[in-house]
Amino acid sequence: MAAFAHSVLFMMLALTSVIALHSTSRKRARAESVAEDKIDTMEIEPSTHSGVDDAQWHQPNNLLDAKLEQLIEKMDARMTKLSQEVKDEVAKLNDGVAKLERRVLLSERVEAG
């Protein structure tokens, strides 16, 4: 049970990391150096005047976004499945505890009677 709980926690951590990376991926395109802060006119993306097609420049970013989206969907599906498995396991354990409590009550009644 402890290993299962650890795997659930690991999957939650992994999903959180993927979501955090995905949500900050576009913001990380700009370098955060002091030198760049001084140069306000520096271009992050190549201009269409330089001969580089915008679609060609954006293709790796779009592929990365698509891959991250797939990973998020897979992680979400796994988390949903693991969450359901945990709920089922907890329900089984609760049933077992309830049976044990009933047996204890019955044995106490037998001993008292």
From TrEMBL:
Q: Does the keyword Coiled coil apply?
A: yes
Keywords annotated in UniProt: Coiled coil, Signal
The highest taxon in the source lineage is: Eukaryota
Q: Coiled-coil stretches, from where to where?
A: 65-103
- Where does the signal peptide begin and end? 1-20
Q: What is this protein called?
A: Uncharacterized protein
Per the UniProt record, the source organism is Perkinsus olseni
